[in-house]
Amino acid sequence: MRLRALAILLAAFAFPSCPSSAFAADALRLAVQATGTTAWELAVVSALRLDEQAGLKLETTELASPEAGKIALVSGGADIIVSDWLWVARERAGGARLALHPASTAIGAVLTKDATVKSVGDLAGKKLGVAGGALDKSWLLLKAYALQQGVDLEKAATIVYGAPPLLAAKLQQGELDAALEFWNFAVDLEARGFRAAIDLRDVERALGATGKPVVTGYVFDEGFAAAHKDALARFFAMMTRAKSLIATDDAAWRAAAARIPARDPATLALYRKRYVEGDPSGSLEEQEADAARLYEALAKLGGEQLVGPGKSLEPKTFYKGAP
User: Fold this and answer.
1) Given CA atoms 139, 141, 144, 149 in this order, what sign does their dihedral have?
2) Tens digits of per-residue pLDDT, 122-170?
């Protein structure tokens, strides 16, 4: 009887090292855009139980827009959101202690069926939809690029902000002349006969980028990161694994594709191709250097109106605590 009790006791001490045991997992509260690619990755995480393997308990809230995620993080309603490095830098310049870990380099485009729109100057006099809000990085980059070409889009065009699916619908209904959309909505619109008049990758290069700049990342508070460093490292590793599986495993891709409205094989194949192309590459130092170059270009062309009070990329914008 004593031996049996001892065996049970030894087993109890052995199990905590195993993430799939009955012991409590680390809880992380996520706020993500319902139509974003992070939702695809989380679908894979759930289908393959990657969270359990990582010893994590994910509490996910799906939101209609990136702005809602920012509010959730700042108000304490979420531990992690997905946003862009420029917003993090602006918040740091204002005193917030946020940081970002790279998630994707995928970036969108200006979509239209208007044959007269071939360059940023052609947007003058047009009604332009902008996904993500007035401080979204893609919009700020487009504004800076337009200023480089001598065009102030806020004065020259009629700007309509909105959630990506709403703007996509308005563009198809003819209520907009063009729309600056996130890459996944751009794919869907291209499949519906719209064309990319302005590719934001070209804009990034025109503003000084040399590689594939990070566009979005996992954003969190430094205090939270310090208190949950190990859990964050496991979360990043889990999401990296989900990305890899989407690229290489058809079963994982089917779990992700279930979140995509498109159903025809050609469009889904294009989604997958563009998604894989957006996987971050290069070192963190190289990614940060590209972000710094883009920030400098934004600050030079648009000043505080574009980037806020900071003159250069805020130190520690990119999180250095991950392995």
Assistant:
1) negative
2) 999 999 999 988 888 899 999 999 999 999 999 999 999 998 889 999 9
For the whole model, what pTM was predicted? Answer: 0.85
Domains of the chain are: 25-105+214-307 (3.40.190.10), 109-206 (3.40.190.10)
**Residue reference for tokens 């710094």:** 292
Longest dimension (CA), the chain: 86
Distances (CA, A) of 279 to 140, 182, 265, 274, 308: 22, 15, 22, 9, 28
CB 242 within 8 A of CB 50: yes
Burial 227-249 (b: 16+ CB within 10 A, else e): ebeebbbbbbebbebbbebbeee
How many other C-beta atoms can be found within 10 angstroms of the C-beta atom of residue 90?
A: 24
Position 175 scores a pLDDT of 97
**Token duo for residue 131:** 């996904």
CA–CA separation, 135 vs 65, rounded Å? 13
Confidence bin at 64 (pLDDT 50/70/90): confident
Cα 60 from chain centre = 16
Compute the distance between CA of residue 246 and CA of residue 28 in angstroms, rounded to an integer: 22
- The string of pLDDT tens digits covering residues 270-302 is 999 999 999 998 899 999 999 999 999 988 888
